[in-house]
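Me: I hope this is not a bother. Any chance you could explain this protein sequence and its structure tokens? It all follows right here:
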Amino acid sequence: MLKKLCLLFLGIVGFAALSKAQLVKEYHVTERKGFDLVKLDFTTYKSVTQLKRVLSSEPVSIHGHLAQTNILPDFKNSLRGNTMEVSLVHKNIESDNLGKSITSKLFAGSGADFEHSWDLGLNSNFLYDLNFLLGVGRSDFDLSKLPISKMKVQSASADVLIHYGDREPNQVQMDTLLVTLNMGTVDLPQANFTNSKLIIVEVSYGKINLDFGQGMSSSCEVLAAVGAGTLHLHLPSENYPVKITMKTTAMCRKSIPKFLKVQDDDTYITKGYSPNDPRLLELTLDVGVGSIVID
């Protein structure tokens, strides 16, 4: 009897360990010639996602730890003209079929630590167009020493950090950086390093942190909107050309530094502002309920 109980206990422990076991998946793009651009489309429904430059000859390498082995990713890559198209889709088909709402996904099992993790490695020798469609989770994009022509991040609920760990700015001029969240925080602590012509950041509920403290080397248009929450903007010195237009309601508090001059009721400029300056930073800030803090 005791032997049977021991075997039963070991079986239960073994089953529990097996249910928590993670599946490791590796994906690589080995082609290195015949294309000028790498277009990466990455979709995941619940994960921690990290991206950074790696010392490899491959244009894309992906390493994943999956908590649920019954939902496997779909990975593809193909050469079309001068573009290497790379796609990884990891969707919770079961939840989609059951028609679960975003709300149920947000508050179901936070202790699972987002269930999956992805590490993406890119190469300094290739030009990238990045498109991320994230469900729930957390993401860390270190773009240091990477040439990025476009980047789009969309998420249901996440904390998104886009930074430059080695303090090396974008090696090319980025056309557009777009980040949209239903709920969460967007941090761009070195926004000037993106070298982007257009930056669009939209958060329905949460917070946006934008730091342009070192000024821009070329002109940039910024559209930042928060439905309910906080928008924090750090500006370069008053000698840099900056123009800010605000779209707010009576339910939005504003904290504005004295070095910003009022051009009209909704527009502010710095001492160094000139509409023809090639370094002009032009921002439109839109907050419904919450606060705008500028320093």
About this structure: The mean pLDDT is 87. The longest strand covers residues 37-53.
